[in-house]
Give the backbone structure.
Amino acid sequence: MSETRLATCTLCEAACGIAVQVEGGRVVSIRGDADDPMSRGYVCPKVIGMRDLHEDPDRLRAPVIREGSAFREVSWEQALDVAARGIARVRREHGRDALAVYQGNPTAHNLGLLTFGQVALRSFGTKNISSASSTDQVPHMVAAYEMFGHPILMPVPDLERTRYLLIVGANPLVSNGSLMTAPDMKRRLAEIRARGGKVVVLDPRRTETAEAADEHVFVAPGTDPLLLLSIVHVVFERHLDRPKRSPLPVEGLAELQLLASRFAPERCAAATGVPAEVVRRIAFELASSDRAAVYGRVGICHQEQGTLAAWLVYALNLVTGNLDRPGGAMFPTPAIDVLLLTKMLGFVGEGRFASRVRGAREMAGEVPVATLSEEIETEGPGQVRALLTSAGNPVLSSPNGRRLEQALAKLDFMVCVDSYVNETTRHAHVILPPVSPLERPHYDVALAAFSVRNGAKYVEAPIARPETGRHDWEILVDLAARIHLDGRALRPLARRALVAATKRFGTDGFLDLFLRLGPHGAGVLGQRPHGLTLSRLRHAPHGIDLGPLEPRLGALCEKTGRAVQAAPQRFVAEASSLEELLERAARRKERGQLVLVGRRHLRSNNSWLHNSRALVKGPVRCTLLMSPADARARGIATGAEVTLRSRVGSIVVPVEVSEEMMEGVVSLPHGWGHDRPGVKMGVATAHAGVSLNDVTDEMALDKLSGNAAFSGLDVTVEAVRRVGLDPAPVSARNSG
Ligand SMILES: Nc1nc2c(c(=O)[nH]1)N[C@H]1C(S)=C(S)[C@@H](COP(=O)(O)OP(=O)(O)OC[C@H]3O[C@@H](n4cnc5c(=O)[nH]c(N)nc54)[C@H](O)[C@@H]3O)O[C@H]1N2
Ligand SMILES: Nc1nc2c(c(=O)[nH]1)N[C@H]1C(S)=C(S)[C@@H](COP(=O)(O)OP(=O)(O)OC[C@H]3O[C@@H](n4cnc5c(=O)[nH]c(N)nc54)[C@H](O)[C@@H]3O)O[C@H]1N2
Ligand code: SF4
Ligand SMILES: [Mo]
């Protein structure tokens, strides 16, 4: 007898509601939950990954320890003991900073990792803690911190009411939205147009989103701060600035205007590739719309002035009077107060310490992952000798993964909390696998803070975990307890008591408490009888709609006595380097220098869904897109294998000549390169591709945030061998 259970897809930020048909612990089918108030039945093709992950024979179901080049299954007791002893020894002999911690992207979709997991990982007190944030959104966090006083206060476009949406460096039709939880982007963009609105995309590639928009404009990679500043320039010049439309206390508008006055569109056009008259028209349309929002995502974060770009996206919303205003860029009011939670966890702050070798500044308690290799390689006090990774695959996801992989081989000890033997975890001494995403209860603590509509949803685990299965957070709490109590007399007793107490409270206990304390909550003692509690959410398994976004920044400013900063001093100081960028970008174009950018595919998810047969079948996706003009100039046709070179290294990839690409720009997806020895993901290895991050540069960082500047990397491309124009060779290779 099969049964249908409601759940949430945890593969991407859209967090679609799903109905999972289960029979005897196996998944029969997954479809969209039509009664989920946010996703209304929508799911993307990737949803099948939830089934395939669960059923995957390559997924580890028991802990393993390495013996030579092989892994052997062991009991939890043994694995945790070996892991704890290894880490404790390194800490004892070399100090706390000798242990590095890295957390990957799936953390954001994992209730236990976001709560107890954070406490456990931060309890090690190492300054060498990093995460996928520094290959992703830290520029937005630094901009939010300086402008609004909290790194989590990153505004999201109010898609349901906006009439003009300017998308800069994002492809939400493929990524399904990021820092913008909004399932079914296709419908949402169509709705903006149906209400008479306009969608404009600025991107060096004519993406799927650009195709669905009213207008697409090519922009040269890495030049967005110049482009955005020239839009700000026109807004002021034409007296279209209307910050007062939103009643916020604001400081620094005059400084912003002064800075922008130097960057007229005519001056920036040669660098950005965007004609001045196009900039002027976009500025006018944006500023004269009654409800407009500017949205920027990883395309603007992955550049050497990513923080300036993120700042200028927010600043543009501010000066056009669209910040914290319906139809503009707004701040959700999630049921769990993440501002409070992150403050409690020590996330709020910046520049409190720096990395040892490069002196990279801390942000939200973390250093850039780009510093990890050098921290392992460079001898001296504080050298990293052990690594603990959780839900991450930095060998494929961080810049210069080749160097990192060589560094990992030198570690004294490495522990990974992960379900696979992959490019990173194959270096581990112990791998501790959590249960599958369908075997855990779920609530979106992080994503609800970036939802285009307020809401709350809790789901029970649709499939009961096996008796031996452990949640990520249970693994980390147990590990931390063992490490901290190692060598103490009280050890077994104290550890068991601590672990038992946390387990008893559990993620449910945490959720109930924080839901009650939150802005929609019932209160700890139930003072607000209609407010949220966990029990109320349990009775509404499709999720509860908490209404459209409401202005809230004004009230926050009042509470803290802090005005919104339109032109933070650090940003204005750094903006002097834009003069140099202006010249460098224009020169690059004159020289015909090729630059590299990344892309995503609808049927792929960073590095870890390539073991699903259903998702990797079809044409090869790991191809280098190149404009017809650039291909012609190099005698290259679709299907040709080329050598792509950067300062860091080279890779060989097949080319796809495409009108989608801006001249001078080539595009390659990341997350591939599964042919490393020792990887135990059969399907992925048979569709290996190459890793973009074998050529990205660990020294190229966003100046203000330390984020990896993957985009706009100088590269050369030359043919390895020539083949005809027929794209068949690409697909033929794929079927093998
Ligand atoms: N060149 C280039 N590089 C990029 C990007 C780019 O655009 N271009 N994008 C960057 C971005 S935005 C990101 S977020 C990063 C991602 O970087 P990472 O998070 O380091 O990499 P992922 O590929 O997401 O790997 C996730 C890992 O977590 C494991 N996993 C999945 N679910 C769970 C779980 O519930 N628990 C545990 N314990 N493990 C789990 C998977 O098996 C996999 O090993 O990559 C970045 N790298
Ligand atoms: N299907 C799928 N969905 C995903 C993921 C996935 O791997 N696959 N990953 C998830 C993750 S971790 C994240 S963070 C989000 C990211 O979500 P998005 O930000 O929407 O991700 P991308 O599709 O990489 O879009 C970035 C765009 O920026 C453009 N770009 C590159 N350089 C520049 C530049 O210098 N300037 C400008 N203006 N544009 C530039 C690229 O051409 C690309 O179209 O997606 C999430 N969703
Ligand atoms: S858009 Fe696709 S991958 Fe993302 S949550 Fe929805 S079904 Fe899952
Ligand atoms: Mo990401």
